[in-house]
Design brief:
- The protein is an alpha/beta fold and 230 residues long.
- The chain contains nine helices and eight strands.
- An eight-stranded parallel sheet has the order 1-8-7-6-5-4-3-2.
- Helix 3 packs parallel to helix 4.
Length: 230
């Protein structure tokens, strides 16, 4: 199991800091997304987390490749595109072309997980895998040598603003000694839950309302980073 080869200079620098902050634009003001992205980039975040939902795998519908293509015009930060969609193999090329640096799929949503991860790698993107809270960690373990990132969901995927499930910390603790890539945590992240996630072994905090719900995004990002003592 290998450490990911980080192509982005910004992300490479951030990885040396250990803790990465990835605001989720699901919680942003959709009427001014370009400005919101510029604001968090100026505020010091490391990654832009983009949630994509198809209304089938999860009961919500969000944005697609044409919108992400416009995001790329306003930010040079790495985009981690979290695909909460059925059969993502049919769409990964479109998201890569739109500007995705990382493409994260759900183990529950792909009929051939290995082939989907291979397709992502062949496109030159970094490969991520995620799982719902009630899905056992064993479901992703067969693919750990194929991925650069594992995204642990600490809420049920589909909607922002949910409460953190502390029982998911056990997944992070169990995964950490088995996986040398990056562990990302998404759902109900604030300073307190972020600290607990980092102590369990996480590298990336995906934060929605705890960043976009604050007037001073730079301060919000700095507060999350301080959760790790960094």
């Amino acid at each position: 199991m290998r450490k990911p080869e980080i192509q982005s200079e910004a992300l490479n620098t951030a990885v040396t800091q250990k803790t990465l902050i990835a605001p989720s634009i699901l919680s942003a003001d959709f009427s001014r997304l370009g400005e919101e992205i510029e604001d968090i980039e100026k505020g010091g975040c490391d990654i832009i987390h983009i949630d994509v939902m198809d209304g089938r795998f999860v009961p919500n519908l969000t944005l697609g490749p044409p919108v992400i293509k416009h995001f790329r015009k306003v930010s040079k930060l790495p985009f981690d595109v979290h695909l909460m969609i059925d059969e993502p193999i049919n769409s990964v090329a479109d998201y890569r072309k739109a500007g995705a640096d990382w493409i994260t799929i759900h183990v529950e949503a792909a009929s051939d997980v290995s082939a989907t991860l291979t397709a992502i790698g062949d496109l030159g993107a970094k490969r991520g895998i995620s799982l719902r809270p009630m899905t056992p960690l064993s479901a992703v373990e067969p693919y750990l040598d194929q991925v650069d990132l594992v995204l642990i969901m600490t809420v049920e995927p589909g909607f922002g603003g949910q409460s953190f499930m502390p029982e998911m910390l056990k997944k992070i603790r169990t995964l950490r000694p088995k996986f040398t890539g990056l562990i990302s945590v998404d759902g109900g992240i604030n300073v307190e839950t972020g600290r607990a996630s980092l102590e369990a072994g996480a590298d990336i905090l995906v934060a929605g309302t705890s960043v976009f719900g604050q007037e001073d995004r730079a301060q919000a990002i700095a507060s999350l980073r301080r959760a790790a003592g960094k």
